[in-house]
């Protein structure tokens, strides 16, 4: 078992873990802060809010995400993010192997 702690709420991105197939990032967004449209390259991306509230837009659809809701993106799927309030988000990029789906 490995334990990781999100410690920096003033830096936009903090890498928590990385191996050959997966990267786990902590994003800290201030109210009103936006990340313009981009994609995660060849990786599938899962976005998990852990504090606050964000508007997540992908494929022309916007979703209000709060802790308890998450979104999963296919590789190269364009998306953008806007913080409705100060927010922390965990971002998981998976670039190889089978992905476990569902709860």
TrEMBL record:
Gene3D superfamilies named in the record: Jelly Rolls
Domain of life: Bacteria
UniProt-listed InterPro entries: RmlC-like_jellyroll, RmlC_Cupin_sf
The protein's name in its UniProt record: Cupin 2 conserved barrel domain-containing protein
Organism of provenance: Sporolactobacillus shoreicorticis
